[in-house]
Structure formats: structure tokens, C-alpha cells
Amino acid sequence: MRLVLLTVRRMLGALDWPLLILLIIMAVVGMATMHSAVGNTDWRFADQFRNFMVAFAVMWAVAMLRPAFIMRTAPYFYVFGLALLLAVMYFGVTSKGATRWLDLGFIRIQPSEMMKIAVPLMLAWYFQRHAASTMRVRDFLVAGVLLLGPAALIIDQPDLGTALLVLASGFCVIYFGGLSFKLLVPVILVVTVSLGALIYYEDQICQPGVDWVVLHDYQKYRVCVLLNPGSDPLGKGFHTIQSMIAVGSGGIYGKGYMLGTQSHLDFIPERTTDFIFAVYAEEFGLYGSVMLLILYGLIVVRGLTITIRAPTQFGRLLAGAMSMMMFVYVFVNVGMVTGVLPVVGVPLPFMSYGGTALMTLGIACGLLMSVSRHQPLKD
Questions:
Q1: What does pTM read for this prediction?
Q2: What is the domain range of residue 114?
Q3: Looking at the domain assignment, is residue 379 inside a domain?
Q4: How many whole angstroms separate alpha carbon 21 and alpha carbon 25?
């Protein structure tokens, strides 16, 4: 009996309760929004509830792992994920023009999702190994290769949304690892000039015959539709226009729970996945949307608090990357739904339907809890 009590106590002690409470509130909001998005408690609602249970179980299991063990396994996890990405190139399953999946017979997996966790883990391991020495430009170049390799393979699938999240989480590790802001100034200038040129020459470069070389045609049209959604209102601009109408029609107070006309009359495409924020914003309005963003902000702030208090370089970099990854998830999805960013297929954390994304978020939160609750690493 005493052994059982000690085991239960250890399991409960692995949880970061402030973060757990925020996640439970987020799960309740997500399930309520899913209920409205599907119109009832059909199979998608039941599946999403199961996905939440699995994600919380995985989070709990990861939270019980010590950072020392996680650090030791990081290179193997990274190499395994990279091997799966290479396998996708040769043996992957193609669906809707993209080759992103591996069919193992009993299950179909998407290795690119794994790299959202594997890349920041690997980079945190790399910087921890070099923590005792002064970081040189060569070290950051090596870190850049570790980041850009998987990102290039993911972009080639093509899966720009997942690649963006991998790049964002990996870049956060590199920046927190000591990358000088001065080195980023040229990159910022190039991006600023490129965006300005894109807007200025929109009419010329968005013509059907113009090849953007680095982007696929559908990605090019997504950017062009962002600049001018009315150019193809019944085609490629339909998603953006309808989601903006839904968000705007919610007004300040919203239309009320399950009373959104845009969603329940099937005007919002992908309303249970990428565009579920439009469903929420239409029903709960500006006030509800602000409260949701505050809730996301509290989760990110809790993650950054864990980052600051982490006793090791590995813990700080890993917790910081997981926190910023969730921030980028929210920023990109909300920007996409409101017409600020192009449509790239990034789900809204704990709201969008899907088991893989919830599993990734569960692992990320478990890693945060592991860093929060366990003792310093011992080399």
C-alpha cells in the first residue's frame, strides 16, 4: 500500500499544476468549440475527445522522464526522424498532391510532425554539449545545418506550414543559445525589402505565367490571394474571404454559442481544423477572442517562466523552444484566419481537430513539465 501511495505521489509530482490547469481549461474550450463546429456530438467530436485523452496521457508520461534521459536520447530521436523523412521521399504516400505520409500497414504516420520536437531537442543537446566553451560562428553554422536539413526535406514534400513551425522552434533554440542580434539585421533587411517588393510588384509577379522558382504554384497563389483575396473569390480566395466574414460578423459580443450562421450554413471551409478560430470568433465575438488569446498567452508565459527557472542550458533552450512553438502555432493560425498571413495549414493548438497535432502538443507540454519538476542534469 505504501509503495502504491509513493508511486501515485511521484506521478502527481511530475505535473506542473499551473500549466495543467490552463491546459484543462483550454481542452474544455476546445471541445465546446468542436461541438459547435460539427453541429452535434458526431464521430469527430468523439474522436477529438479520445485524442485529448491520449495527448494528456502522453504528456504525463513524458513529464515523468528526467531531462538527463531526454537529453541522452535526443540525437537518436533526431536521426530516426531524419531517416523517416528520407523514407517519405522514396516510399511516401501521396494525397492531395503532397507526399507527407508513410504507410506502415497498421498505421499511417507523418514524420514531419515528429521533427517539430526532434529538431529543437537536437539543437538543445548540441548547445548543452558546447555550454562550457565560447560559442563560435562555426558552432552556429553547424546548428543551422541541423535545422535546415529537415526543414528542406519537409518543404520538398511540400508542407510549408510544418516547415515553418520546425524552423521557428529551431531558430528559437539557436537564438536563445547565444546568436547575436547583429547577425540577424541583414536577414531582417532582406525580408523587409522582399516583402516591400512583393507588395509593389504584385500585379506583375502574380500573373499565371510567372514562375516563383522557390515556391510551388499553389503556394504562390496563396500569397497572391493574401494580397488580393478578391482576385479569385470563388476559388483560391474563398477560404480567406469566408473566414474573414465569419470573424467580422461576430462583432463585439458574438452571435452566441452554436448560433454562428457562417459555420452552420457551411460557408466556412475546414471549420473543424485550420479555420476553427473563425467558428469561435463568430459565436463569441471580440471579447471571447481576446479572452482566448489571453488564455494562450498565459500558457506561453507559464512556459517562459519554466524556461527562466530551468537549472541547465539544455532545459532552458528546450523549454523556450516549446513555449515559442506554441506561440507561433497561435500567431500563424489566427493570422491566417483573419487574412493577415497566407493559408499554410497550421492548426490552432488544442482547438483544431486532429490527433497528430494534439500528440505533438502533448509531448511539448510534457517536456515543459519535465524541465519544471526535475533536478539538474548530471553529466
A1: 0.87
A2: 16-373
A3: no
A4: 6
